């Protein structure tokens, strides 16, 4: 649990800027041309207009508040379930063990990280307070103010907006990530003919596992972002037609009633590209985050195991010393 918490939260912090770019690309209004053309253009635009602290690292506080306990629960549950299933010794395939343990771990952690995801995603879309460069529909002063306003205006249930979509994205992602990682690590060990992988191989196997899992679950990530950040249209707004944009570009607004309806609407109106919006930064984020997370996780585990072995040896040596002294007496 300690190794997983350190690995997961450190990787989330370091990769937060890429996650912000991904969120902006997925959550931007459907305009032609769009505000953010691609990953690099989004990076440059956000830094130029909003800076790093309030732009690229907007929403970092709720991200960390959710990441530390969530990754601790996540890894602890994963290892517990995996060891219990292997301990049954009934011939369960390794892939099934890893998929099951990863899924259960994510479900347990979701209670903590989904509310933090709602806060983080809204603050990422908003950027800084009174931001003139982004129209997100939100204007929170900080994390605490955001939590207060969401609770006051939308109720406690708003903290779990997109809960099903988040689980539908993260459960398969976590299951695939761990299954890919364990499989890639096994292949690397066979290739290197060694049970101990170098730092480079640990990062590579983790990055490939996270990148592949992230790419496959991108459509679900798009819907998670849209469901958590959309605002329910008011009756008054629904009756009055929206004024045409000054640049005469066509804007399309749609309120998503659910996951599958949203997936079908995006596919019908935007094609495959609409389902895979932000796949570049998502794959970049999941691969780098996964590589860092797993390498820190493995290194901390090794460190803790060495400390435990050292303590056991000291304890054994002390016992031998006491026995010798007793024999002499």
TrEMBL record:
Q: Which GO terms describe its cellular component?
A: membrane
Keyword Transmembrane in the entry? The reply is yes
Q: Where in the cell is it found?
A: Membrane
Where do the Solcar repeat units fall? Answer: 1-84, 93-187, 197-303
Record carries keyword Acyltransferase: no
> In terms of domain of life, where is this protein from?
Eukaryota
- What keywords is this UniProt entry annotated with? Membrane, Repeat, Transmembrane, Transmembrane helix, Transport
Membrane topology field: Multi-pass membrane protein
Family listed:
Belongs to the mitochondrial carrier (TC 2.A.29) family.
The protein in question is named: Mitochondrial carrier
Task: Say which species the protein is native to.
Answer: Rhizophagus irregularis (strain DAOM 197198w)
Q: What is the lineage of its organism?
A: Eukaryota, Fungi, Fungi incertae sedis, Mucoromycota, Glomeromycotina
